[in-house]
Request: fold
Amino acid sequence: MLQMATLISTSNLNGLRAAWRKGMGGWIDRTLPDVLCMQEVRAPRDAAESIFSDISSLYSSKGKKLYEAYQLCKIPGRAGVALLSVFPFEDLSFGLKGLDDDVDSGRWIEARITLKSGIKLTVVCAYIHSGDSMDEEKMDQKFRFLDTATCRIEELLLAKEGELLICGDLNIAHTPLDIKNAKSNIASSGFLPQERSYLDKWLSLGLVDEVRSLCGQKQGPYSWWSYRGRAFDNDAGWRLDYELGTPAISSKAKNFFIERAPSYDLRFSDHGPVSVEYEC
Reply:
């Protein structure tokens, strides 16, 4: 680890209870992120709080206190986001203003923290709708959420209240480098040109794609592999999970890794956790 290093991770769990049962705790115990953003918690409050308590115990055993914030989806078994941090929350907000439908809940948390170096940072834990290119209503929900998220990102950037880091499952593969089979998925939700244009917009506002910045213009790496067929075995994946930061925090990003299980049966989710190490 780097001196004065901060590790920030994001992970779509595909269900907190299932991920915990399949060994997520072992990954957390080995990695111990300073900030951990979770998506698709999909658990009732009592079950979620019980597992968050177990995670806190892992940190306590290493002499660290953990702060937690979460928002469950109003629709049982859907969405749900959580943000865990060793840094106290100085400000918290949940959801996006103007989006009051149940389907939009459990998808956005903002937390303001101060890193070890004194940098003020607003972390957003986001879970964008997956959408369905064959379902107009679901795509409308996704585009509405993306429009509102874009407005909120612009507000946060204009406020200039420290640095900004957007973490989470954005359910968009940005370029052909971020998807194994680009040509065959050009009409698939998650890779539609209209969806990809939102990431173009966010980057044009000044945000930096940390993983792409660190790994360069090469194919991959991926963070999601379908449970269908042999996608995982063949590394036929999509990069859907991101950390997008303002230039000052991005300049501190020195390393990244995506947790890809050694074999299909050892996965705790269909997504691999994405972690970025910041020298601050």
